[in-house]
Design goal:
heterodimer, A: alpha+beta, Arc Repressor Mutant, subunit A, three-stranded antiparallel β-sheet, 3 strands, B: 279 residues, alpha+beta, four-stranded antiparallel β-sheet
Chain lengths: 106, 279
């Protein structure tokens, strides 16, 4: 997939993955790979700065837990994040339909 | 044990880019958890502890670049440096206003004095704001971040010295009862301006230089486009501490010199040589 297009969709993907469960960074990378069959993949250098940015925006929040004897930062979606996800889903559906109506004809 | 040391060194290279100590500690824990989870996965797949550690670190890319991206995506919050800078600016403002009001009332001040103090405040303000702007410029995620400790350490010492000098002058000025005697208020204000600006510059130096596909950004400053330069040369000088490596770019209006640690030299040179030819 186009790099720029993929970059723009990353926040929506994070919000969607956190919609029903709280996850830590490593698990988010694994979930995305698993769900998309390896088509989409996050590098650590992309994911962590984005997570911190989204936390700053108040879309997600984090909590420290202890797992396997070490501190683990677990992220979850906030109310604001749910709203943002709904908005981004709508935009995505509209975009998909629009692109489909052009590409589908060819 | 050696593996654990390698991991901690790698994590430190990420958090070296983070100004706020509390945040740096949190990032340390988060990165450690990530690396150890990955290592556990890889060893389960049959890799040795060392191979697994190596693979997990390689997967994360350049640690300084990751740290840089994390620093620039920090949730907006106040650090102690911001608080100190604002405190110093407010102090300067208070002293300046008191100076003008007192002197005007005592008749020792004329329009020329007012002009001089006003110009001083404006010049200092522009200097501080300009340097602050450099610090807040965002450049996305660079390919690599260079923090040359060898060349920066001497600069750090100079700036620390200047800051201490500034603080010393403030203390001296205060003990000479600033508000009563207009004669001491001007040097105090000057030292406050100096201290504020050096703190801004000093925190800026710690940002490091970043290599982008578009060009090089020196210490959080302006991005210098590759198209302005046509060649580079590696310069080596010897100091008491050992060798210092520098990469000098040729061709632009400025010919900047990039300080590089010996461990980073080859990687930086490979990157630079993608865009420029060796002189």
């Amino acid at each position: 997939m186009n790099k720029e297009l993929r970059k723009g969709i990353n926040p929506s993907l994070i919000l969607a993955l956190l919609e029903n469960e709280s996850l830590y960074g490593y698990a988010l990378i694994e979930r995305l790979m698993l769900k998309t069959g390896g088509v989409l993949e996050w590098k650590e250098g992309t994911l962590y700065p984005l997570l911190h940015q989204m936390e700053g925006k108040g879309w997600i929040q984090s909590e420290w837990q202890v797992a396997e004897g070490r501190r683990r930062k677990v992220y979850s979606i906030t109310k604001k994040g749910h709203g943002e996800l709904a908005k981004q889903k709508e935009e995505w559906v509209a975009l998909q339909a629009a692109i489909g109506s052009v590409l589908g004809e060819a | 044990m050696a593996e654990e040391k390698r991991q901690e060194k790698f994590i430190r290279r990420i958090t070296d880019q983070i100004h706020d100590r509390e945040r740096a500690n949190e990032i340390k824990d988060e990165m450690r958890d990530h690396l150890e989870t990955a290592v556990a996965d890889y060893t389960q797949m049959g890799l040795s502890q060392e191979e697994a550690g190596e693979k997990a670190r390689k997967q994360m890319g350049d640690p300084a670049a990751l740290g840089y991206a994390l620093e620039h995506n920090a949730p907006k919050h106040w650090t102690k440096w911001h608080a100190l800078i604002v405190l110093l600016l407010v102090l300067q403002g208070v002293i300046a206003i008191r100076l003008v009001l007192n002197s005007w009332a005592n008749g020792v001040f004329d329009w020329l004095d007012l002009l001089i103090v006003g110009a001083m405040v404006i010049i200092a303000g522009v200097m501080v704001l300009n340097n602050l702007k450099k610090l807040t410029q965002q450049g996305g995620q660079p390919i690599m971040v260079i923090r040359a400790n060898e060349t920066l350490s001497s600069l750090d010492q100079v700036t620390t010295g200047m800051v201490l000098l500034g603080i010393g002058l403030i203390v001296l000025g205060t003990s000479m009862s600033v508000f009563g005697d207009e004669g001491t208020a001007v040097p105090v204000m000057n030292s406050l301006f100096m201290a504020t600006n050096w703190i801004v510059i000093w925190t800026g130096q710690r940002v490091g230089s970043a290599v982008y596909a578009e060009g090089i950004q020196f210490n959080g400053g302006k991005l210098l486009s590759w198209s302005e330069y046509n060649s580079y040369r590696v310069l080596v000088s010897h100091t008491k501490k050992g060798k210092v490596y520098q990469i000098k770019l040729y061709g632009g209006k400025m010919e900047p010199i990039l300080g590089v640690e010996s461990s980073q030299l080859r990687t930086v040179e490979t990157l630079v040589s993608q865009y420029l030819v060796q002189a």
